[in-house]
Structure formats: structure tokens, C-alpha cells
Amino acid sequence: MTTTSKVRASGLPGAPPLPKRHKGGGTWAAWYLVAPALLLLAAVIGYPLVKAIYLSLFSDTIGGTSEFIGLGNYRTALTGDGAGDFWSALRVTGLFTFFSVALEVAIGLAMALVMHRAFRGRGLVRASVLVPWAIPTAVTSVLWRWMLQPEGIVNHLTGGSTLWTGSQWPSRAAIVIADTWKTSPFLALLILAGLQLIPDELYEAARVDGAGAWRRFRSVTLPLLMPSLMVAVLFRLLDALRIYDLPQLLTGGANGTTTLSMLVVQSSIQQTKFGYGSALSTLTFLIIFGVALVFIRFMGTSLLPADDEEGRTA
Amino acid sequence: MATTVHSHRRPVGVRSGRPMTARRPPSRVVRRRLATVGTVLSVLGIVVFCIAPFYWMIVSSLKGPNDIFNNDLWPSAPTLVNYRAVFSGENNFSYALRNSVVIAGTTTLFAMVIGVISAYAFARLHFRGKRLALGAVLAASMFPGVALLTPLFQQFSNWGWIDQYQSVVIPDISFALPLAIWVLSSFFRELPWGLEESAMVDGASKGQAFRLVILPLAAPGIFTSALLVFISVWNEFLIANAMTLTPAAQPVTVAIAKFTGSSQYQQPFSTQMAAGVVVTVPLVILVWILQRRIVSGLTAGALKG
Question: Which family does it belong to (chain A) (predicted)?
């Protein structure tokens, strides 16, 4: 951006852009520097991931030794005794993800467009937008549970008498509403940053050519916003697919609101069925991984941190 | 720096059509007024949307047991009885607060030390395999927590670590690390590294150049990253809930969820609201003071300019 190049330029008047001496011999030094982080990630994220796959191949015999049963746990989850729970959790997770991400992107985009236009009250908007983000999800869940009580403020203000956490669809709606409240402001910030990258001249040009507001939005804003919008959607998608805190504390998984992550915790932690729980968590992981892969494939490689090298040498 | 320039930049499309409006028919003025009114109303809408539930949490926390269900938008007889209940013995809340400070503080410290070192390498050095390493860090942040929970829980149970800080802190560090590295390297990339060279030309050693020239410039970015990491750990629930069975190492997020009311069947909402205020208000104040930096940190992490 213009600001950074200005800072850089003032920093090194007439100096050569960047020293090259790190290129050859620096590789080892650089690897030493990143080693602690990579080793920690390998130990606490990489290893458990592999271990979970290994554990998932063994039976859960309470008190006895667990035996190797191959894909038995997966069979149980996909077609056996656990199939009902698993497919229901997958459906519920997919449902939450679809509706919350769609709503959050729509509301986030609308908020970002307003924030982009507003001169006065910018600080105020930015500060208030950060509030839902800063509140812990655990507190958000309890707060919405309170507001959605039968005699709570939401019913009071809307004049309704919905038993929000009492039956299936209201419970699901409650979770989507709370998630949307918590996350769309955050999305708005990401989208706003993307909006600010679009050069003003393009709008000028479109205006001179006689494009109206809607046309400018469709032909200038939206296409140029797409890259940052897609990154934001990808982050949100991966986040929504692993949703746990909110449904756990808002409905406790009652009335058809148990998500995949909740199912894993129930099996692994509460019932200490490590084999079966690992199978479920591996399935969850594969599903999320698959969605990410399809999304990145679909959207092109622009999402990968590839442009980093070019950014340094330019 | 960069952010102030941003905020002074005129937003797009507003009042920029001068050359075309030499004649300016009155309807256009009216339309512009309406547009301004529309923007102001939308801004108010956003503020209400974001603040209202938070406001309701504060109002509810100030209502006594007789008022709590009356839905008045203002507490008719504000009372601190709920706050007293929060810190009374049975909820262990002050203990949980201490746990949260210990867990989030330790995690932030470790994540920042490791994060600064590797972010320096990522932002400053060219090396073979950099993209691979950076990709691995990014990928690590996308793994679902539950995929790691079972083996970690089993391992920590075998080591007798359940209900001890390290069983929460160690996973938290590795969850926070990708965020820290990502945000820090984007901050570091913006630094005027040429000054380091200049200082060395003037006779400073590499260490001095880094310590005396670069570090003071990097401090705001490091502080912002630390705050982002701290908030993410402070708000963490899944790991903390799984690894703690008793209040011994329970942080506030878990403690609030487990508050017990006067009767088993009644959720103690007003106490929970008060506890929520205690947990949230410091964060909200910090965020308000540092909003510009936080926004640039958050968006740098996701967009990389």
C-alpha cells in the first residue's frame, strides 16, 4: 500500500532495497529461529492428530485391554449403532454452518459498506463492533440463553412467546442468531479492510461513465472485494464447522442441536471411549479438511500464502 | 501510523462527483441529504445491534431478585447483590479469575516469545522451505480442536496432568501460536528494516541495532499481538472444560458456565450476568482504548495487504 512504501522509503534514503546475504547461509539460521514454533506445533497438533487415527482403530473395553478392530469404530459411527447420532450431528453442523456463515457474510458486508461511508462516528462504530468479538463465547451463550428465556427480553420486545430453547427449530435458530451476533461484526471488520484496498479512482471512473450506485457496487466493489471476502468466508467456514461452545452452553445439545464437536466430546471425555471418540474426531477432521480443500480448489490458489515471497522482493 | 492515514482517507463515492455537478439540480441536494440521514441511521443501527446485548447484560447484573424478570430497560433499584454473590464462597469465582490470569498470562508469554522469534525469521529472512513452514503454521490454525482433544486428554490423564495448569496451557500455546506468528510477521514486514542497516553502518552491532532501533518500533505491534493472543486464550472454553474436572485449574469461562443457583433447576442468570460483566468489561475497555491497533492487527492477520 502507499503508506507502507512511504514509511520504507523514509527509512532508507537511497539505500539498496534489501541485503541479499541471508539468501544462502541464512537458511540454517532461519530454520533455527522457526524450529521452536514448528516443533511445538508438531508435538501438540501434529502428533495428537496421528495418534487419534491410531487410537480410532482400537476397541473401547472398559477395564480390559483394547483390541485392534480395524475400521470397526468407523463402521459403528457411519452405519452401526452410532449412525443415528453421527448423521444427525453432521446435518446439524452443516445447517448451522450454512445459515450462520450466509447471514454473517450478508450482515457483515452491509455493516462494512456503512462503515466505509461514514465519516463521523467511525471510532464509535469500530469500538462497538469490537464488543461482540471481545466477549467470551461462553459468556455470549449464557447471555443469549438469558435473553431468549420465555419471559426474556427478546420475547418481550418482539411481543412473541417463543419457547426458544424448548423445541427443535427455535433452538437451532437461537444458536444461529447468537453466532451471527457474535461473529458478523468481526466479519465486517475484515470486509471493511478489503473495501479500503479498492482504489477510489475506479469509483470515479465508473461514476464518470454513468454507473449508478448499484451498478458500481456490482461491477467495481464486488469483484474487487472477492479475494478478501473469500479468505474471510474460508476462515468462518472452518470455524463454524467446529462449533462447540455456543450450542453446548446455549442448548446443551438438546432438541437436535448436537454438533459434531459436541459428539466427540461426549464420547471421548464424558464416556472415556477413546477409540470411538477418536474415530469421530478423525471423521470431523476429514470433513473439515475436505471442505477446506474443495473451497480452496474452487476459489483458486489466491488464498494460499504464496504471494509472500513476491512481496518481499518487490 | 498506517491506520491514521486510512481514517483520514475520504470514503469512496461521497461528494466526489464535483465536475459533473456544475448545475446541481435541487433534487440532488435532497437526495444527498437523505443519503446522509440514511448513513447516520445505519450507523446507529450497527451500534445498537452490537451493544444492546452487552448493555442488557450490565442492566441485568444490576437488578435484584425481585426485578430480574421485569424487563425494564433501566434497573429501577440498582443493586450490587449479584456481584456479591459472584464473589461469595460457593462459586469459587475469584479462584477462577486467578486461574484465568495465570493460564492466559503464561500462554501469552510463551506464545509471544516463540512467536516473535519465528515471525522475525518469516518476515525478515529468505530461506528455503519458508512457504512450506508458513503453510504448516497456517494449517495448524485450521485444525478443529476436538480432533486433538481425545489423544491429549488420554495422554494428560496418564501423566496425571488433569486439573493442572499445564494441561490447559500447553494446548493453548499451540493454538495461539499460529495467530501470534501470523499477526506478528505482518507487523514486522511493515517495519523500516533499513534503519537497522543504517545503525550498523554508524557502528552499532547487530544486537544493538535490533535492540535500540528495531525493538522500540516493533513494540506497538508486539503489544497488539500479545493482546489478541491474551483475549483468545482468556475466551477459550473447549480445552479448559475438557482438562479440568474440579475448580482447581478452571478458568472463568468454565466457571461461569458451571455456576449453581439457589435451586438445582434454576439457572442463576443474574449471577452469571454479573460474572460476565466482571470478565468482559476489562477486555472491552482495553479494546476501546486500543481499537485502531486491534483492528489493524486482526485484519493484517487475515488479509496481508
Answer: Belongs to the binding-protein-dependent transport system permease family.
